Each structure stands twice: as C-alpha cells, then as structure tokens.
Design the sequence.
C-alpha cells in the first residue's frame, strides 16, 4: 500500500489532469473549485461535462476520450453512480491515476468503481480532495485533511 500523502504527490505530479463533474452553474460546486484552483496553480486541466461546451471560460469536453492528447490523471467529482463509467473509460484510455473527490458528504466515492480501477492497475484515491495537498492547497484544505484523516473520512493509504 502507498500512503495517501505519496499517492497525492504522485497524482499532483501529473502533467494533464481532467476534472469530471464540473458544473455550468458553479456556485461552490466541488468540481469547479478543484478545476479552477488547479488551473490557477498552473496545471493543465480539462473540464468534463457532457452537457456543456465551456466551463469557467474554458472548453469543456463530453468525456475523457474527447480531450485532445489525453490526460495523465482524473479527478472524479460527479455523483458516485457515474464513477464506475469514468473509471472504465480511464482504464480503456490507459489513464493510471484516479481521485474520487470527497469532503464533507459521500462525494464521488464508489467502492465498486475503486475496486474495478485497482483490478486494472490504477491508483485510486477514495476520498479527500487534491486541494488538500501540494501547490494548489490552502490552509483550510490542509486543516480539513488533518481532521478527515483523524475521523477516517479519507484513507491513510491507497
């Protein structure tokens, strides 16, 4: 097993990251917060929403396979019932890093999707938020990270 800290570092060393579940009406939507913070921190990020042509002023893509040049990692910020299809698409495209976003609610975590990904060699982070780690993090997210680790709302290992 790999520590969550090491898995997060590896994930955040990815050059191109897709964020699924970004909304046309952001209003503090988790996917949009992750997307814009990663973008503003200098990551090459891609918004995925099958119902939008643009998100946050950037092009949006209906699915992972539409992203020109592909991606190295995916943040899943959709409802959990959509996670398995995204993990399957990541497998089909050769993406090796998947992060199922979760903070205060059940978020995007789907244990069945996580198992599918791991069975196919993906590193799957089930919970937490990429903004809790690395250069895109902020004090509030780092505090949440410590709290959620203590209460086991995010994994210590993946």
Sequence:
């Amino acid at each position: 097993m790999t520590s969550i800290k090491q898995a997060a570092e590896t994930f955040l060393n990815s050059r191109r990251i897709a964020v699924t579940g970004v909304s046309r009406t952001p209003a503090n939507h988790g996917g949009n917060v992750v997307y814009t913070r990663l973008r503003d921190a200098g990551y090459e990020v891609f918004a995925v929403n099958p119902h939008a042509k643009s998100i946050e002023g950037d092009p949006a893509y209906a699915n992972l396979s539409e992203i020109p040049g592909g991606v190295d990692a995916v943040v899943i910020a959709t409802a959990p019932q959509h996670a398995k299809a995204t993990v399957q698409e990541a497998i089909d495209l050769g993406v090796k890093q998947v992060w199922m976003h979760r903070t205060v609610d059940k978020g995007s975590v789907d244990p069945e999707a996580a198992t599918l990904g791991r069975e196919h060699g993906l590193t799957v982070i089930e919970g937490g938020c990429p903004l809790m780690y690395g250069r895109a993090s902020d004090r509030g997210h780092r505090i949440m990270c410590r709290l959620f680790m203590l209460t086991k709302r995010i994994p210590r290992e993946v």
